[in-house]
Amino acid sequence: MNTTTMMQALPAEHRDQLLRIAREVNFPQGTRIFEEGRRADRFWIIRSGTVTLDMHVPGRRAAIIENLGINELVGWSWLFPPHTWQLGAEAMSPVRAYEFDATTVRLMCQEDPEFRAAVAQWVGQVTAHRLHAARTRLLDLYAPYGSGSPR
Fold it and tell me: How far apart, in whole angstroms, are the C-alpha atoms of residue 35 and residue 4?
């Protein structure tokens, strides 16, 4: 199940507002894009490549939660205080992405209630999906009786 993309979630005028402030960036394969627990001050929309989200598990290797691809949002923690990454992210292939400054987008949200509502709805849907993916993956890996998938 893919998360809702910016193209699906935001009306054209709000997508255009965001894309006007986007900066194109590239991440070589193997680049850690962000680390769980650090300050979340930006986010990305993947243009090409794959990003893996992972979660620190004490005493074990990081658990891979989800793989993200073209048009998907990388990072949602920038929107919600305390603006700290809840997961880690790594480029699993060369990645081209649009990068957005979180402070600028939060200011845009303060200035335009319709924009704020659209962004909050989009990021909220992504967050709910990621929470479900994390729960399912961690239960698959560590629960004594297997999958956390609903019956």
Answer: 23
Distance between CA atoms of residues 34 and 29, nearest Å: 14
From CA 23, how far away is CA 103, in angstroms rounded?
A: 14
- Identify the bridge partners of residue 70 per DSSP, sorted by sequence position: none
Give yes or no for a contact between 97 and 91, defined as CB atoms under 8 angstroms apart: no
Tens-digit pLDDT profile for residues 48-68: 999 999 988 788 788 888 899
Half-sphere exposure (Cβ direction) of 89: Cα atoms closer than 13 Å? 26
pTM of the predicted model as reported, rounded to 2 decimal places: 0.83
Asked whether 80 and 119 are in contact (CB, 8 A), the reply is: no
CA distance 51 to 119: 22
- Structure-block tokens of residue 13: 């005028």
Rounded to whole angstroms, the Cα distance separating 22 from 137 reads 32
